[in-house]
Every structure is written in structure tokens, then in C-alpha cells.
Amino acid sequence: MTDPRVRRVQPSDVDDVVRLVHALADYERAPQECHLTSEQLHTALFGEAPAVFGHVAVVDGAVVGYCLWFLSFSTWRGVHGIYMEDLYVDPAQRGSGLGKAMMVALARECVREGYQRLEWSVLKWNTPAIEFYKSIGAAPMDEWEMHRLTDAALTEFAGGA
């Protein structure tokens, strides 16, 4: 049974989700790196060609958590999966099962659509999140290391440097 506190994100939720994204950036000790605006998120979620999807957790009519995700593709398995970009629950609501409920919603989306992976990244210092993920049966991908090009490095590389 679906947790009634969790539903797909709606246009009226965008401002609340942006607020929570900025709260996540604070929690992850990088508020200066978060520049997301409501207009950007609205376009990503509800524009002409949405490429980002989401769920929210609602308690007493207030959005207190969110997860944003997009489709990935496994060349080895030959099918799509879900990559969860963010999962965040307001500190006052942690321990209430909302994080797990949002992840169950994503797992059900995978099963319903025939997707074979649900993946995400977690900061190595975020012990509470790591313990939670282990408790639901998730396995760390220790043999993989994430790499990223952004800002000046991305621009320079795109210029053929």
C-alpha cells in the first residue's frame, strides 16, 4: 500500500521543494553551490520536455520532504533505471518513515516500469544516510568513483583544451 504522505510533485509544490533543496545544500555544507530557482525547477519538472521527476512528503498539508530523480540507462542490462538525485526530509520529520516511504515509491516505479536499477550517491561523511541506506538493503558501489566536470573545467574541456 502506498504511504498517503507521499505523492508525485505538483506545480504548487515547486517553491517548497526549492526551499528544501537549499536546506539540503546547507546540511551538506555547500550552500554557496546551490543556485536553484523556482523557475528552473518548474521548467525541469513541468516544461515542454520534462527530464526530472519528483515526489514530495506532506504532513498536515506542508511539504516536509522531497526526492528528485531522472531516468538512467544501463547498457549492460539494456533497460532504464532511476537515478535519485536528492532525498531530503526536514530534520523535525526525520525518523517518521518519510524517507523510506519516498524510496519505496521510487522502487515501485522501477518495478512497475520494468526498470532494473535504483541508484544514488551519498557523501562519505553522511553516516545517518549511509546507515539508513544499508538498513533497506542497498549496497555501496565501493569499486566505482564518481567524476565530474563543472564550471571553468567543463568550459575549458569543451573548447578542446
UniProtKB/TrEMBL annotation:
It is an enzyme of class 2 (transferase). It comes from the Bacteria. Its EC number is 2.3.-.-. Keywords: Acyltransferase, Transferase. The keyword Signal does not apply. Residues 4-159 form the N-acetyltransferase domain. Pfam families: Acetyltransf_1. The keyword DNA-binding does not apply. One of its GO terms (molecular function) is acyltransferase activity. PROSITE patterns: GNAT. This is GNAT family N-acetyltransferase.
